Amino acid sequence: MTQESTTAAAAAHDEGRAAAIDDRGYLMQLVFGSLAAHTVRAAIELRIVELIGGKERSAAEVAAEAGTDPQATLRLLRALAALRLLEESAPGAFSVTSAGALLDPGTPGSMASMVASSTFMERIMQPGWDHLADSVRTGDTSFEKVFGKDFFSHLKDHPERSAGFNEAMSQATRGTAAVLPGAFDFGRLGTVADIGGGDGTLLAGVLREHPSLNGILYDTEEGLAQAPETLRRDGLADRCSLVPGDFFESVPEGAGAYLIKSILHDWPDDLCVTILGHCREVLPADGRVLIVEPVLSEAVDPQSVGLYLGDLNMLVNWGGRERTRSEFEEVCGRAGLAVESVTRLGGPGGLFCLIEARAA
User: Fold this and answer.
1) Could you say which of 6, 44, 319, 332 is the most buried, measured as most Cβ atoms within 10 Å of its Cβ?
2) Dist CA 335 CA 12 (whole Å)
3) Is the separation of the CB atoms in 254 and 191 below 8 Å?
């Protein structure tokens, strides 16, 4: 073997070894993902990003203001820097990155509330994840195995958890509520109904942008519990009716469009057809069903890893699923609806699409 070929072989060996090390590091990063989530939540609880603000601060200064142990604080700040939420520009001196700034409640587009509420959600949902392999074997949820009843029945029996769930859903909806009003011509309607609309965050966003529009907010008694406060706060109580009910039984008449956000992914196909079928029964000839959900690519998009993990969460805790466009077209078709368009929502609601369906 020549010197040149020996050198090339050694270089290829080194590259292969480096790739193997990178792969091992990547796998370990996945395994320890839950530790990263706890680290970010601690940063929220201790107001780390707010205390550092827009300048460089030492770990000792942050600890003094946070009332925390200096050495432990340094270790937390370095972990946050490794997660690219902070930057350690000099030993023990930290500043906030653009990603870290999203943990400040005062930052436009802040995700602080969503991160904080995820702690509550994890307490309910994590036990089911412990049985993910069982759910994959059987196709059944694991939540019932742990808690003895399905997710929503459990919430009904625990009002404090129901309130926490409603708050988490409200926070998760605010970004979409900011962009949805401009994504459809709501102004041509007299009334829009939000089916399973919870505390009214999404419907309130639509009504604020369209002053001539009236609303119907439809959900269970538990789902509507925080809605009066939302509508009062936004000055919309006189333009929106609260209607308790069960969308598996019926939906209210009298709307030109039926809005359904983050509902269908909670349920298997047959129950989605039931919900959509009730909307079809009361839909006027020129009416629309507006489904707001993530839409999976027909083949896996590695940039959307959160959607696929969310899909497993639906399997484990709810028995629902995320769907591709063709899968939405199938359940809509079975309910007597035809999908006219699928539009990806921009801005803070960019994870979601608006699926517009009409009577077939």
Assistant:
1) 332
2) 58
3) yes
Q: Tokens 């940063």 appear where?
A: 43
The catalytic position among 154, 210, 265, 278 is 265
Is 265 among the catalytic positions?
Answer: yes
Closest alpha carbon to 172 in 102, 216, 118: 118
User: Considering the entire predicted model, what is its pTM?
Assistant: 0.79
CA-based nearest residue to 256, from 220, 290, 300, 211? 290
Candidates 165, 136, 177, 186; CA nearest to 266 is 165
The per-residue pLDDT for 262 is 92
Got the DSSP string for 162-219?
HHHHHHHHHHHHHHHHHHGGGTS-GGG-SEEEEET-TTSHHHHHHHHH-TT-EEEEEE
285, 359 contact by CB (below 8 A):
yes
Q: 5 vs 1, 8, 13, 15, CA distance in Å? A: 6, 5, 12, 15
pLDDT at 118: 66
Q: Which residue has the tokens 């436009």?
A: 108
Walking along the chain (360 residues) 10 residues at a time, the average pLDDT comes out as 56 58 79 85 92 94 95 95 94 94 83 70 82 91 90 83 72 82 92 95 94 95 90 93 96 97 94 98 96 92 85 91 96 98 77 94
pLDDT score recorded for residue 124 = 81
200/219 Cα distance (integer angstroms): 10
Q: Say if residues 203 and 259 touch (Cβ distance below 8 Å).
A: yes
pLDDT of residue 293: 94
